[in-house]
Amino acid sequence: MKVIELKKVSKKYVLGRPFYALKDINLCVEKGEFLSILGPSGSGKSTLLHIMGLLDTPSSGEVIFKGRDALKMSEDERAEIRSKEIGFVFQFFYLSPFLTAKENVMLPMMFAGEVNEERAEELLKKVGLGDKMDNKPYQLSGGERQRVAIARALANEPSLILADEPTGNLDSKTGKDILKLFKEIWREGNTIVFVTHDKELSKAAERKVHLLDGRIVG
Ligand SMILES: Nc1ncnc2c1ncn2[C@@H]1O[C@H](COP(=O)(O)OP(=O)(O)OP(=O)(O)O)[C@@H](O)[C@H]1O
Ligand SMILES: [Mg+2]
Question: Which ligand is nearest to the CA of 44?
Answer without folding.
Answer: 1
